[in-house]
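Progress report, Aim 2. The chain analyzed during this reporting quarter is listed below.
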Amino acid sequence: MILGNIIGKTSTKEFMFLVRGNAKKFDYVQVLSADSYILGQIIEIEKENNQAIAFCNVIGYRKNNEFKRLLIPLEPGIEVLKADSDFIKEIIGLRGNGVYLGKLDGYDDIDVFLDMNKILTNKISILAKTGSGKSYTSGVLIEDMIENGIPLLIIDPHGEYSSLKFENDKDKEKLIKFNVKSKSYRDKINEYSPDIEINPNCKALRLSNYNLSTSDIMQLFPAKLSNTQIGLLYGAVKNLNNKIDFDGLILELDLEDNSAKFSLIHILEYIKKLNIFSDAPTSLQELINPGKCCIINLKGINQELQEVIVYKLLKDLFEARKKNNVAPFFCVIEEAQNFVPERNFGEAKSSGIIRQVAVEGRKFGIGLCIITQRVSRVEKNVLSQCSTNIILKVTNQNDIKSISGSVDGINSEIEKEIKNLPVGTALVTGVLDLPLFVNIRPRRTKHGGESVNAIVNIIKEKESDERDFVKEIKEFKEDKGELLLVIKQKISKKDIGIIEDKKNIRTVLIPCLSVNLKESNVLINLNNGEIIYDVEHGNGKKLFFDINLSSQQKNIFNQALKMREFTASEIFAKSQVNFSEIYDIINILVSKSFFVKIGNKFKVNDAFNVKLEDFALYENPDYFKMEYDEKMEKNFNAVDVVKFIGNFNEVKNYKECWLEMFK
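Predicted structure tokens for the chain:
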């Protein structure tokens, strides 16, 4: 369809034409230039004296399947045609894979997809005023990521994302129009909460209290500490040899002769009673599980505690990713203005780690989505890291200024359009240099906000290293079996069958703990408590530890490990246990062979002088899709084992895994 002819001054970026057909603002047009058509877009139409003039931006053209910019201005007088759908799709490159976001506004036959590779290795923002559909749009994004097997972590302050478990039974006509089928992701959702009384349908979220750093401890306190209190904390941490847990820290502070200790102890005891930090924390590998979506439901939790949880959780996961202890994942943060506020609105406890993930996450395979209804209150440095932005209706002038300052391609004309966007339509940047207007598709699941093998391979630290995530994800989905962190045998099951002339060989997985020490690695069998020295046959030596000690017995034993030889009065002075109980506890530990009595003194049993370097192994676990016949039961707690080993050796890192055995 001919819309008119070019008139006036032209450039490689802009042109205008006299309208003779049915032209509308934001329509796409095509114009013949040299030997190919170029794509343009009408950005404004002005009418005077019965004449309409359309002002257009030049987008570009494709040659040999490569996107090109216009280098020579268009000739005046050339016909301007309404762009057909196939031409628009060809130039813009809207390929039919990735995240299906919706349809190009004004073109019901053009579907808009976001490139999965860009999503996984970059940052996204979803920006909107209250009631404009930000949570709905994020649900659309999350659904397709679940479909593609991407491990997801959702920080959900209001419990809105539980609805992903339920199919959409309302928008039947829209579902048909957008060629979408309603669906439930109940079997793909794992939901956790620090308070399961408020959120009874969730699993309990417990964070590790093992080896809390001094900075971790500082983040737990609601107010800024005095220099005296900071000094007390550092002194207590030093006395614990940097192996911090709440019990040990409270005991060390209680020994101090300074009244400033009491408020510190009171807060630490309060946090301990909340039961958020635990000796048996929720496994990070359980939270980040390929093919699963993990929701952290913080509904009913006060804001300051939410910040602490997000800080500790993201910090642990970030460190775990750097060591390849968990799979690459994508993190969605709702109400981002509360977790990483602009600095003149204060500093949240979670601000620092979110900034770090925004800047460095790409190197380690952590994607990030920032969602907010108050754009001006989100830290600009974090927003500016987002290469793809989904902007719904925003009317607050401060928020609009923040969008213009953080998002490329937003001019004064686009600012006006953002104010007038209808509910359900989004302005999407990052697909092209020019923003796209997209009608968001209906969700497959119910809306809850009403009033890689890319997942498993470590991403190279060099930012220039690009990978085909979509292809690898498809391969991951096609593989059979369960994705697990495994130490595999060097000889395959098939080869063993041939060598030993056996047919019915079973694959058995043994629960293990891979521990990285200062000089070597060791592998602990969590089924029988042995330290493994023969990976091929699973043989090991029994470690001498008892996980059934009471807290007081553990306290006495840990103090004894530092002293090696001691009297009852000497260990009493260190332990803060009642003197009337000290002999009973020592006698119990003697009866269990933890201590040996020598005259009036006691010493730690020589059996604890385990030379772990004699059991050094160099096999490292990695992620594999595993088919197996049996998983053996885990009888020992990983944190308890690490604490025990930490008494004799410096533990650098540890991860739970499985040892493949053939029987």
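Residues 111-205+284-440 form a domain with the Rossmann fold fold (CATH 3.40.50.300). The chain has 21 helices and 32 strands. These observations will guide the mutagenesis work planned for the next reporting period.
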